[in-house]
Amino acid sequence: MPEQNERPLLLQVGPLLPALQDALNSRHEVLRLWEAPDQAALLAARGRDVVALVTSGVHGATRELMSTLPGLQAVFSFGVGYDSIDIAAARDLGVVVSNTPGVLDDCVADTAFALLIDVARGISAADRFVRRGDWRQGKFPLTSRLAGKTCGIVGLGNIGKSIARRAEAFGMEVAYHGRQPQPDVPYRYHAELEDLAKAADFLVLSLPGGPATDKLVDARILAALGPHGYLINIARGSVVDEPALVAALQAGSLGGAGLDVFAEEPEVPAALLALDNVVLTPHLGSGTHETRQAMADLVLANVERYFAEGRLVTPV
């Protein structure tokens, strides 16, 4: 930890909220890596003096980058997901990592449930129907109710529990899948993901990304969800076999999907754009003014506590 009277040198990997950037600049010396015309030259010239990385779930932190910073002590990330940060490398290098859990649970759960309602009731499709003038030619097709249906949640962490509460408020049954059952929740547990998919009308993905969950939802799981089932993904695009999802939707073997995340963002498969039973949003799960400010505040709190006390508020 730097001496109290020093201004620690931070390396910011990519752009963040302007207010957070201003706060960091006012208290620390900050190198803005993404703006450097020659990043390798910047790292060669100043990398040995960097003591912390400031990044996000989008920009992450690779082993290669961290290894170029011999004095690196900490990584501060804006976002709850940390699959883009090489945690194993950080441990090997003796670098601590923080993220921003808790403060974004409600907004991400709101996004999940908005997608669920939209794809079930055809809200976006109905909007297009009216705008095209199709209402003059006939009525919009009937859609699916929520009450009495089963909401299957994959990953019953804080966000998953927030989604479950919303589902209950709409009269839905809740079931879940995870590494192990949670004794303090009243929902039915399925040890096998395929069994949950068979039981669910809506399969909501709320689990971490990374190698352990890569393409966890594959053709087999989509087939179990079936032609009257809907997939909702507010987790990571990597947890779904995207070509298998496209194939299932095109074949009609899956009822529909609500997707906030994709395998190669911001690229979205052209086939999905053509489907009226798919709702697409641009990874906006936590995208409200209030939540993004709370995330920024928590990043700053982690930075300040680390340099004052050598501890993190929310360590990974």
TrEMBL record:
Residues 24-315 form the D-isomer specific 2-hydroxyacid dehydrogenase catalytic domain. Residues 113-285 form the D-isomer specific 2-hydroxyacid dehydrogenase NAD-binding domain. GO terms for cellular component: cytosol. InterPro entries: D-isomer_2-hydroxyacid_DH, D-isomer_2_OHA_DH_cat_dom, D-isomer_DH_NAD-bd, NAD(P)-bd_dom_sf. It comes from the Bacteria. Keywords: NAD, NADP, Oxidoreductase. Gene3D superfamilies: NAD(P)-binding Rossmann-like Domain (3.40.50.720). One of its GO terms (molecular function) is NAD binding. Belongs to the D-isomer specific 2-hydroxyacid dehydrogenase family. This is Lactate dehydrogenase-like 2-hydroxyacid dehydrogenase.
